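Q: Convert this sequence to structure tokens.
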Amino acid sequence: MRFYGVLAAVLLIIGVAPVRADVFAVAGVAAEGTAQTAAQARDPAVLDAQRRALRTLLERLTAPGDHARLPRVDDRRLATLVQSVQIQTEQSAAQRWSGQIAVRFAPDAVRGLLRDAGIAFTETTARPHVVLPIIRTQAGPTLWEADNPWRDALRLVAGAGLVPLLLPRGDEADRATTAERAAAGTVEPTLGERYRARVLIAQATGGPQAVLVAAWVAGEPGERIEFRVDGGDAFRRAADELTQRLDARWKSVSLTPNTGSPGALLVKLAITSLNEWVQVRAALSDIALIKTATPRLLSRSAVIVEIDHTGGIPQLQAALAERDLGLAESEGEWVLSRGRPVR
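A:
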């Protein structure tokens, strides 16, 4: 009985809201305007950037085939959707103001907007990717140097999106992966483990007017992402393009039907310790597809969990796999298992 009492207490503690990547935040949005004074130019520029940020968010959450049907809102409705605005960078001259902003939208308001339009969407995130922002020059690849505009551009979009991006701290342990090794696709095995993330090698060639990007996940099979961006502020626009392509890849397996009726699944999880169940429960609580995960039967060797979720089984399996959890049907019952360790 003591085991069950301790377990119940732990369930109460970990029932708090989990920390998730903020998919409802859009960062690095360019804003600029002119007027009689820079101060007068700022507010219209920021408002226009909010409009574009909303479009970016709606496209992030939905399938490309639905983008033509995305709802358009007036400025009064936009104000109800925006939760906060942050000025990330700014420059002003006599009659001109320019900068970059981050907009955080109200999740429930955005969900309601898409549901009213009858458009399927996803807010389930993939495993974070820690990015190694390599710049290739004639002298060779650079990575950890202070002057790295590619890293600066990626920092503006880090932490948001369906595939959250992290920037490494650049400490001694990180620098064990040199620019030359990273460019060749070789990284220290502990790098991903320390950040609990996949390692994304993102190599940029060029300058502020034209950038060629090649990106791939170290040590994993999968298609390389390659594209070119031409024109001013190319590094920032390349960072936007990279996040959009990563999000599109994840949406291909995570997009759920626009239904208000969740499914319910009873699954069995074998455990060897209380701590193992605590870790799995924390992972389940971090998946937006899962509305509740309620233990129905507890023992020292197994937990029977009822999972209320939206979307279909394939989407649920994809989301679980990102947290190193497997879901499969075996002998008439659904079995939840812990997968391979974080890479």
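The chain has three domains: 2-19+257-338, 25-116, 129-253.
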